Amino acid sequence: MLPAQAAGFLETLLSRTTATVGTLAGGTTEALDPLLVGATQLTPPYLDHVVIRLQGNNLVLAAGTAAFDATFQHNGRTRRFVVVRPEPAAAGAPVLLLFHGNGGTAENQANLTEVADLVAAEGVWAVMPASVDGVWDDDPARPKGYDDVGFAAAVIAQLQANFSIDPQRVYAAGLSNGSFMTMRLACELSDRIAGFGIVAGSLTGGLESACAPVSPRPLMLVAGSRDPIVPYNGGRIGVRSVPQAFSFWLGRNGCNPAQTLSSALPDIANDGTTVALQANSSCSSGSEVRLYTVTGGGHAWPGGWQYLPVPLIGTTSQDMDATQEIWDFLRDAHL
């Protein structure tokens, strides 16, 4: 393709239009607020990756993927989520919800986790909800004035009503504030989400007191021993240590602590980090719990981008791919 043609093609991809989901999906919505969907943008066939723009934010797509964003009204607010899906899309695809950190965006979360590569390889839909003013309502003891548990449930309902996804295989994972939100969903939305990944987060005292999952689900934690934001050993008011959070979920899932197995992941990167795994599948609920301790790791998504300098957040370990590890752990779970 000639440069001028390529430029024209990219310009077309980046153009924005808006349509109702009934038009795009060939159907109609019922019993839900209307879902407005932006134009689907594709990766050009001659590129491995491309950067597109959604609502002024950069989003990296991989070959064989497409993306769009969508909005709907929830509790009097306009709420938004971003979708990265396979191209072409197959019916009955599983969904991985990814919740961004404090001050982040849906696009940032997709980029730093490099989830577009997972979408291309595994056929999963990645869905990145966007918070209100960059902060999730993650702790029932400290309400923010908006209902993010209800919003997450509404996102799942919109996906189920308007697209061909598998409602039995919806999973959730998050980073930092998004991981605290994900843990709240593990407590309050386990009837709609089949498994959970917690990265650079722990358990608040308020959630510990209120947590009553309808159905225990597989859950894994990933935490850096040198996390300056959410310290591994706790110490922040109202936040439990990561080992305490692990023990809490062993109890919730009916696991025998004596059956926890320890191993080490290969040290494949010369970055000053190593990863130890504690896993327990001896659980009366049938739902495994894991803890990946990243020794030397910071407040980061292992295998992802170093999104801020090391002095601010610590080292992003490259000894594990948290995105792939979460998917491999959750992919067979279902409601």
TrEMBL record:
Transmembrane segments: none
UniProt key word Signal: yes
Domain of life according to the entry: Bacteria
Keyword annotations from UniProtKB, A to Z: Signal
Key word NAD present: no
PANTHER family: BLL1128 PROTEIN, UNNAMED PRODUCT-RELATED
Name the UniProt record assigns to this protein: Polyhydroxybutyrate depolymerase
